């Protein structure tokens, strides 16, 4: 299996995208580093052929690094959702700057039931959900569960490795297939005032969750 772009070239494209200017703590907005995004997306395509010629959803897209990467790797259409108006403006800027034509952007609450017009609609759902810390406890699992509702095949999601056993329990509870397909290091820069260190190196798992019938 192959990808339209080499990993290094994909990462270089993603490095040039505009990121958050004023990230919002209520949404746990952290940028997905270009290296993490490139490795995750390249893995998803090369190992599972889950991007090229697929209908893809980027849930909680932020500035759109996953959506834009999926587009570069040949997705037939990428739908990018975010609740935050400022994030929508940034991804629209990235789409305009790169003259991308196969990414549609919608401002909506991903967890709101009105998204069910897409139930089992997307081939592939991508997400780097809120970690589920501070005031967002459990948000990561809500994202993951909704992703499964909207996918007819698989969800690929980034989570702190420290939550691995919890996700394994949820996978069993939900009756789906789940595996960690890559272990990554997330160099998280100090983004908010409560961060005491300049950056933190966090172990991150790339999960693949799949409906048992597919």
Describe the structure.
The protein has 214 residues and is α/β, with parallel strands linked by helices. The protein is 32% helix and 27% strand. Strands 3-2-1-4-5-7-6 form a 7-stranded mixed beta sheet, with helices on both faces. Strand 1, helix 3 and strand 2 form a beta-alpha-beta unit. Helix 1 (7-15) packs antiparallel against helix 2 and helix 2 (34-48) crosses helix 3 (65-72). The chain is globular, with a radius of gyration of 16 Å. The two termini are 19 Å apart. One of its GO terms (molecular function) is nucleic acid binding.
List the helices and strands and how they pair.
Elements: H1 7-15, H2 34-48, E1 55-59, H3 65-72, E2 77-82, H4 85-98, E3 103-107, E4 122-127, H5 139-150, E5 151-160, H6 164-174, E6 177-189, E7 199-210
Parallel strand pairs: 1-2, 1-4, 2-3, 4-5
Antiparallel strand pairs: 5-7, 6-7
Helix pairs in contact: 1-2, 2-3
Task: Kindly summarize this structure in a few lines.
The protein has one domain: Vaccinia Virus protein VP39 (Rossmann fold, 3-Layer(aba) Sandwich), CATH 3.40.50.
């Amino acid at each position: 299996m192959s990808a339209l772009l080499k990993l290094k070239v994909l990462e270089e494209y993603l490095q040039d995208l505009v990121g958050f200017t004023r990230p919002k703590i209520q949404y746990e907005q952290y940028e997905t580093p270009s290296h993490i995004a490139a490795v995750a997306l390249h893995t998803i395509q090369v190992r599972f052929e889950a991007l090229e010629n697929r209908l893809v959803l980027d849930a909680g897209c932020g500035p759109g690094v996953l959506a834009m990467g999926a587009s570069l790797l040949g997705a037939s259409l990428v739908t990018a959702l975010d609740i935050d108006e400022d994030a929508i403006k940034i991804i629209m800027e990235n789409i305009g700057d790169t003259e991308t034509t196969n990414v549609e952007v919608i401002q909506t609450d991903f967890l709101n039931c009105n998204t069910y017009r897409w139930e089992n609609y997307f081939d592939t759902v991508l997400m780097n959900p809120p970690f589920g810390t501070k005031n967002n406890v459990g948000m990561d699992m809500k994202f993951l569960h909704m992703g499964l509702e909207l996918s007819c095949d698989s969800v690929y999601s980034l989570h702190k490795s420290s939550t691995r056993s919890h996700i394994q329990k949820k996978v069993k509870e939900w009756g789906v297939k789940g595996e960690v397909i890559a272990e990554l290091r997330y160099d998280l820069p100090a983004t908010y005032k409560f961060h005491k260190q300049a950056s933190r190196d966090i172990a991150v798992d790339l999960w693949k969750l799949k409906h048992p019938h597919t």
